[in-house]
Design a protein that fits this description.
The protein has about 300 residues and is α+β, with helices and mostly antiparallel strands. It is built from 6 helices and 12 strands. It folds into 2 domains: about 170 residues, Zn peptidases (Aminopeptidase); about 110 residues, 2-Layer Sandwich (Alpha-Beta Plaits). It has a 5-stranded mixed β-sheet, with helices on one face. Strand 4 and strand 5 form a beta hairpin.
Length: about 300
């Protein structure tokens, strides 16, 4: 047999002699970058930055990608810590590989965004190393800030950064290997309650307890859960509950997340949670301000056929 092609894309035999394929070349390029990518990941991990504040991480990633020969544009989509790094091989498909690099408040990179960032940048560097073997098209490494909160990808989507992209890929750490993962849509809302402060011992009857309204909202939401479909989620925290135990709180606040697999179900459930807050405020005599937070995430469906 003169030769054969391996469906997995690894070495082939031609006249009995192994010939490297592009996949082999990519593996070789990654092997050569291991130490640098490991150091990059650890540097981001040891310097956690919150959403839209990832100045160091974005700087390190763009410096690395520029060094690999990609064309870098910083601050894309009007987001200071977003970027694109492009490898252009002419007319053809536009494939995007995403980097995430923000951290969680208080606990740092518990979701492993430092690994996601280094993996995305490493993929771009490896492809740049074999650019002459790539087919026509464009590879874009897109730095997407504020994944933990703030919806950085949504802002970039609205700014048109993904308009000419044909396919998007990224990896995320998990406790098992998955090719695809659908995700719930999520809408966020804050409730601010206003009451009247009085001394809790001397004349509490003169006050209006904003914290009571807040707690009643949680009680109402807890009862609502019995009538909520099992695939939906409601969760919240009290962000402000008063200043001192002997003062009737005149201000309290809470934030809720509402999640569902369908966009219409999500907004229906969102409205029911808002009514819980409205009823609690009316029952206690407190004022209520409802703020729908921006950057709503619609339900995510991966392309099962392509994966």
């Amino acid at each position: 047999m003169d030769g054969y092609v391996c469906a997995a894309g690894h070495s082939v035999l031609e006249q009995g002699v192994p010939v490297n394929t592009p996949k082999d070349a990519i593996f070789e390029a990654v092997d050569g970058l291991v130490e640098e990518l490991d150091a990059l990941s650890r540097r981001i991990h040891d310097n956690p930055e919150l959403g839209f504040q990832e100045v160091k991480a974005a700087g390190w990633l763009t410096e690395f990608l520029e060094k690999q020969g990609l064309e870098v544009e910083r601050g894309v989509g009007g987001v200071a810590t977003a970027f694109t790094a492009t490898l252009d091989r002419g007319a053809g498909p536009n494939i995007a590989i995403l980097c995430e690099y923000d951290a969680l408040p208080g606990i740092g990179h518990a979701c492993g965004h430092n690994v996601i960032a280094a993996s995305g940048a490493g993929a771009g560097a490896a492809l740049a190393a074999i650019r002459d073997q790539l087919p026509a098209g464009r590879i874009q490494i897109i730095g997407t800030p504020a994944e933990e909160w703030g919806g950085g990808k949504v802002k970039l989507l609205e700014a048109g950064i993904f308009r000419e992209v044909d396919c998007v890929m990224m990896i995320h750490g998990f406790d098992r290997t998955l090719l695809h993962q659908d995700m719930l849509g999520v809408a966020r809302v804050t409730f601010e309650y206003t009451g009247k402060a009085t001394h809790a011992s001397v004349d509490p009857w003169e006050g209006i307890n904003a914290l009571d309204a807040c707690i009643q909202t949680f009680n109402a939401v807890s009862m609502l859960r019995q009538q909520v479909r099992p695939e939906c989620r409601i969760h919240g925290i009290i962000t402000q509950g008063g200043k001192a135990a002997n003062i009737i709180p005149e201000y309290a606040a809470a934030t809720f997340y509402v999640r569902a697999p369908r966009i219409d179900t999500m907004w229906e459930l969102y409205d029911r949670v808002v009514r819980c807050a409205e009823g609690a405020a009316r029952a206690t005599g407190a004022g209520l301000k409802v703020t729908k937070l921006d950057s709503v995430y619609e339900p995510f469906r991966s392309n099962h056929r392509r994966t």
